[in-house]
Amino acid sequence: MPSFLKDLRRRSKASFKTDTTFSSSNGSHESSTNGTVPASVSSSTVDSALGPSSPEKPFNNKNRSSSNPSLGTAQGNDPPPPQPRLSIVTSQSSRYSAIGMSPATGTPKPLSTSPLAPRVLSISDNSWVHQKVLLIYGTVGDPAQQPLDGTLTVCHHQDTFPPTSWPVCDSHFKALLHLQPGPNRLRLDFTSPRIPSSHTALSHSSWVSINFLPLISAPPLQLVLLVAKDSPETFDAVPERVQREGNGIDTAIRKYRMAAYLWQAFTGEQMNRNGFGRRCFRYEEEWQPGTLSCRDMEAGQLRNEAKVHVIRLNKTVAEIRDLDIAQQYEPAKRKGELYSIAIGAVRAHFAPRAGQQQYVSAMFLDTHWDKETQTVRGHAALGGGVEGLKLAIFGSHSLQSYPTHIEEVVGIAFIELFTERDDLCHTWIEYVNSTNVMRQVTLTDADLRARLPEDRRTRKLKLKIFSGGGGDYTVEDFAQLTTKAARTKLPDGRLGFRSSKLGFSNMDGSSPEEVILESAHIQTKLLLKIKIYHGFCLDGLEFFYEDGTSQLFGKRGGKPGGSTFELDTKRAEVVMGFYLRAGVWIDGIQILTNLGRRSEIYGNATGGSGHMLVPPRGYSIAGVYGSCAQWVDGFGLIISR
Fold it and tell me: pTM here?
């Protein structure tokens, strides 16, 4: 045997030095001559390994050694030399800034990481999930130092699904990802009108890899639409929506399907947050014209999406809408009959064999709101089952508000207008945009009243404002915000405007209070700190200036000395707004600054309900007003340009 073969046999595998190793999942290669083979990581992880941040979790390399021959066990008599420790940095998401992209393949080039690259916090890179639509959340930049608003665009794996846009508010975002079975590599792009974009290509982008494994061995949840035998095949909807999107059975199916995937995304996220992993039900799916994206309908794209079974009942519309079986009608005597109707129809349709288990969600299409009895007919929110069938039923009375496509999930924001003595809303303004969400609107008294019927235009006007996130805020009397009483003149001549006031201002001995901040109209005045006087409610606020003077709103009550919140004047920090807990009076208050800092909640952090007082864009805080009795029972802002 040649001598060099003997030497080769005596040497272990682990002692060999490799000339070149490869550690990129996107086709790019990195050279290594130090005798180690780095674990395979995504391009963004390689990039972030060069940065100053430390890993959020220790890197687990237990399952990687068997796949790499240089990490195998020694086969000779000599023990293998010790391996250098791998320096791998992991992150919650595959953070990678692509200032440029490969023109041929669209894969990222290994360029420097942008501090504004979106960072996913809710799921780790290369995680496994079992649902088609995944809810994620994360941040952009540093929310504590410089909160930003903008838009997050999700570009899906190999363009298998159209790009979708999601709002970024105060550097935080939520988004829905549409996944294909198998590995998915998605790009997240952040843009903002406040950030100049690069002239080359995408400036602030990151990558995240998610593996989607459908659990086809588990029984699916089947979606059913129950239709009366003489049904007109329409559902209740306001005229504007009927004109824009229709209210026929095809629209109902699209809305039902989209809502089902939102149920799945929400359930999976909540299970994970509570320590159960992303466990979730799956749907029965079929190859059909896609409806999850509005662009699929335009292009006629076929996709594997949830199947909605349309089951024709042997009952008439009148029988389904019988008040005596309406769950919400108090005098009804047969409130459970709708459930029996649904069970019979579902079992007859699917005809399950003995031993088979089915899970079904069924919606009655012919649900109707009865104005005279103030009752939803043809609706019951019930769940349970019999042997072999687990069933949940509900009505279609809210179907009009469901998004039809994934682009409409965040487009749902509207304002309801109520005049005096109105029990129901008859006039509203809806803001629907498939690519963005309204953050700020300007309303005038004349424009709002022009939308009302002529015989109601002089009545007191109440607004109920609904945000895209599902929150709402009520303005009891809009005129109070537009009359002369809502305006004040600042000492420098500028006009100030009073915001809506929180608290009822009706405690015994309550008297009005107002403070125009001297720092708002005297350039030489510098606000240094705010002292908050509180116990289990807010007693007062005192504003302290650099020259030693102060201004007091309310009283110096509560715990001795109060609490102090100091501003970082070296960084030009100023008060941007307040978060309050309030009901009849002001329970607690939190200070918000332009640097993204938030104080603790002083007072009762769980009292009343939460409210945010922040000036609109282009305005700043010029003072505060309200009322005080034993403690503060009214609080609002005075703002100016």
Answer: 0.56
